[in-house]
Amino acid sequence: MKKVLITGTSKGIGLETALAFARAGYKVFATMRNPEKAPALAQQASSESLDIAISKMDVDSDASVKTCIDTILHEHGPVDVLVNNAGIERHGSVEEMPISDFEAIMNTNYLGVLRCTKAFLPQMRENRKGCIINVASVSGHIANSPLGGYSASKHALEAISEALAQEVKPFNIRVAIVEPGIINTQMAQDISVAGNSVYPNSKRQAALFSAALKTPTPPSLVADKILEVADRTDWTLRHPVGPDAAPFIAWRQSMTDEQWIDWNAVSDEEWYASIERDFGLKVR
């Protein structure tokens, strides 16, 4: 039986990924910061008699990651797949968002992935096999306000994943990046609510997310893609997922940097008209 460890399984994409792997016959080690506050996965695993072991692990903490992963490896032996899914989102303009929020995003979304990856690499390298799947985002390709801090963490994750893939391929370890678009999660719903800002971008992004969530893409779609990537044998690095993911990435790539900045700096009327014209989303 293959074994997988998945981070951030209390809800959303992580929870659905744990269920997808278990239903596919994997032994699942599902980790989360506070299992006692998130009973949904345990209840679902029990009702379906799924082989899911839930462990407390905070990816922000060196000690927590080391203790959890060392225990799992000692008691259960090598793990075949690591899914780095844990992530947080904070949004706001560069001026208005506190430095503590920037630090929190990077600690979880970037350094948290490194902590878990480094804990597994010696075992995978020694066994000359393994698969590491990092859940990034379309925001790893697109930087726009008020998601600058979040985008920075996902850009960093894209870069380190690409470097890691080069390092570990000679040891038969596959690295893959899964890049969701707008998925119906609590994170996306939070972005869809406009806050008070002196910058108009916050209101615009809230309108965009709100419009996209009217025809929601479920997190199970991302979970299915992660499972598919784990079961594949090819070395494809990037995997956009969701109906808007590839179009959003292509849209950004169609513009120069200067055009992208100019587009994001236009008037509200021009911005809303462009979104409605190019993507058919009623965002006003």
From TrEMBL:
Keywords of the record: Oxidoreductase
GO MF annotation terms: oxidoreductase activity
Family indicated by similarity: Belongs to the short-chain dehydrogenases/reductases (SDR) family.
InterPro entries, per database record: NAD(P)-bd_dom_sf, Sc_DH/Rdtase_CS, SDR_fam, SDR_oxidoreductase
UniProt name for this protein: SDR family oxidoreductase
The keyword Oxidoreductase appears for this protein: yes
Enzyme class, broadest EC rank: oxidoreductase
EC number: 1.1.-.-
